[in-house]
Amino acid sequence: MIATILMGLVPSFLMVGLGGMVRARLAPAAWQGLDKLNFEVLFPALLFFAASNRPIAVQDVIRIGPAVWAVMGLALMLGYPARRFGPERFLDFAGAWQTAWRFNTAMAFVAVPTLHLADVGQMAVAIGMAVPVANLLAVSALSRGGNLTLWATVRKIALNPFLLASVAGVAVGLSGYKIPDPILAPAQMLAQAAIPIALLSIGATMDWRALTRLDLFNGYLCAVRLLLTPALIWVLCRLLEVEPGLAAVVILFAALPTASAAHVLASGFGADRRLVATLIAQSTLLSAVTLPLWIYLIGISF
């Protein structure tokens, strides 16, 4: 089973490695442009297509939403003790703290097909429910020392492309309406490009030497994101006898590496961007080991 999981994930990690190899072929501004394209167009198309391409039961939204909110709340609480040995300035700590609960959407859609219990549509619902709360928590933490007004903060959250696409896709799924294939086809084509471009960009912009700077503070936050939170969620799912499909999605969501764009928000508020970028690289690199193990554990537990 573990070999099957690795075979499912290896192509994606090889794409990340390829991105690292070809980073010099494009200027940094070009990679930033690809990130912008993914954020504004490609991943929203993926989220919309995944959520709208199948009927969604109201109970799925009612079950999945609170579950992923609980995951992020737990990660937030587990991450806060790092304040004692983190940066002196709270703003810099907040920039790093957000990596404990934010999640990498690309890796979510990479990992889902390796689990027969998990469903792509349910993961799209999970991400749709999680995006606004993840941003709200991050912006709230950073706003203590940030320069955004309340209205600008609300606007930033409300107009998030992931949120808009997810809400639209979930609305279509809940309605039961089947969008005609010729009209939905462009969204599908864009969706197919999202993950490869995201993986290449992650590899091209990641600091591959980041693991050499894994100190107590960074190591603890990575452990919260990759080990402690999914472990507690796994225990809760077992104790509460959660339905296997839902348990698989929620535990997998809890085990994802942190969001690759977390440093953008930190930079916007004036936090230490380099610290956050290092944490992102460390979380992504370490997830190459932890994520297959969690997928294996989910597969034998439910």
Automatic annotation (TrEMBL):
- Membrane-spanning intervals of the chain: 56-80, 124-145, 157-177, 183-204, 216-236, 248-269, 276-297
Q: Quick check: keyword Metal-binding in the entry?
A: no
Instruction: Please give the Pfam families that the UniProt record associates with this protein.
Output: Mem_trans
Keywords for the protein's UniProt record, in alphabetical order = Cell membrane, Membrane, Transmembrane, Transmembrane helix, Transport
Q: How does it sit in the membrane?
A: Multi-pass membrane protein
**Location in the cell:** Cell membrane
Q: Which InterPro entries match?
A: Mem_transp_PIN-like, Na+/solute_symporter_sf
Origin superkingdom: Bacteria
Does the keyword Membrane feature in the UniProt annotation?
yes
Similarity comment: family membership: Belongs to the auxin efflux carrier (TC 2.A.69) family.
Q: What is this protein called?
A: AEC family transporter
Species this protein is from:
Ruegeria aquimaris
Organism lineage string: Bacteria, Pseudomonadati, Pseudomonadota, Alphaproteobacteria, Rhodobacterales
